[in-house]
Amino acid sequence: MSTTTIEWTEATWNPVTGCSKVSPGCLNCYAERMAKRLQAMGQPNYRDGFSVRTHKHMLGLPVTWGKPRMVFVNSMGDLFHEQVPVAFIQRVFEVMEYTPRHTYQLLTKRADRLVEVSPLLPWPKNVWMGVTVEDNERLYRVERLRKVPSVVKFLSVEPLLAPLPDLNLDAVDWVIVGGESGPGARPMQAEWVLDIRDACVDEAVPFFFKQWGGVRKKAAGREIGNRTWNQMPRAVAKVA
Prior knowledge:
Distance between the termini: 18 Å
Number of strands: 12
Structural class: alpha/beta
Largest sheet: 8 strands, mixed
Helix content: 10-25%
Number of helices: 6
Order of helices and strands: EEEHEEHEHEHEEHEHEE
Shape: globular
Strand order of the largest sheet: 1-2-5-6-7-8-9-10
């Protein structure tokens, strides 16, 4: 198992690694920095750094995990990247369908390709699909997400780079919000977070606040006022 410090999941699984920048949220990509470190360490899956690569030998990994867990798929890449063959995406989905004891969380910034490929994929109840939205101009990704037949549809609003005055939460089951962290982190305003949190409360959409971010993210913490927001979707598909 690949353990993780990501607050809203339990494990990561990376049958695809590498990506390319498509929008402002990609500027300071943590996965790109990590891939370069792993390349320098000689990790074979990252011998090509952050170039997009598929890894057939990683496909069977979740089958070996006996204990049910929440799994973030492709924390080090984008399954719906244009360079990932449809046949490989289908194999990833077949593995997820074959292991219903796990709950799989997928994220993409490539919402158009997600919609294009979606009819070719099985959508078992243990697969959650999300899109990243970093500013108001990227809200079109939410419209695309609504077309996907996943049992849980969620938004990763991280890094939040601007307010989202036009956010529509129809058919959205979960919202994660976080500020950018690490070198060059761009600031996030508290009012942007509060507006999204309040919209989630009004619409009864579970809200998860990941972090305030910044260069020293641990010091900034993840509380809003005196509260930590760790809400999860109601349709948690984990099997005891």
